[in-house]
């Protein structure tokens, strides 16, 4: 009893320190609560955490411009096959050619043999130019500059370029065009997700779908000039999922251990 009275007198005489010791735990709890609420508010912008009983229809737009990082050169997309370039760093589709003879005799085209291979490259070139010239974002024409696009002779040389320039190319097309009525493609993209101001940017949504849509539209117009196409997507209907954060999971266990 005497020891309790002594400790009470010491705490009373040093009231400021006693007050801070008592309230420090409450401030700590308040900090954890605020951090957890901030994280929940940040992730709440993600469609995964929203209630979508009937998701809206969203028209897939054009290919966004590649944003350079750390001042490095960035390419919107690359493709194959393309004729060899005089520059030796990939073919840049600067010009639009209306005929195969103009394409083959162009000063920018080199080593375009044999003829069947060169004809396929000409078809691919027209499709690529259609992708570049017909690019639209939010209903506005946003042509892709030729210096942001590179073509390569085959997939091996394109893959080598992608490995040597990791993170500097949004995606690549591997075209196959054996005839004017048979044009197909495979798509390669950088699948690394990134967060911009709390909103996750998914390459499949922001890059892959626009690249795929633009290629289908350009191929359709190449086969049937004057044709129009609009492609839209919808999220899968789902209820709102609970936002689970690391702080919200660990904090109760931490406080229980402290007690």
Short description:
This protein is an alpha/beta fold. Helices cover 42% and strands 15% of the residues. It has two domains: 2-48 and 245-258, no CATH class; 58-233, no CATH class.
Structure overview:
This protein is α/β, with parallel strands linked by helices and 259 residues long. It folds into 2 domains: 2-48 and 245-258, no CATH class; 58-233, no CATH class. The protein has 7 helices and 10 strands. The chain has helices at residues 2-13, 15-43, 100-105, 115-133, 155-164, 203-223, 246-258, and strands spanning 58-59, 77-80, 136-137, 140-141, 149-151, 171-179, 182-189, 194-196, 199-201, 232-233. Strands 5-2-6-7 form a 4-stranded mixed beta sheet. A two-stranded antiparallel ribbon has the order 1-10. Strand 8 (194-196) and strand 9 (199-201) form a beta hairpin. Helix 2 runs antiparallel to helix 7 and helix 4 (115-133) packs across helix 6.
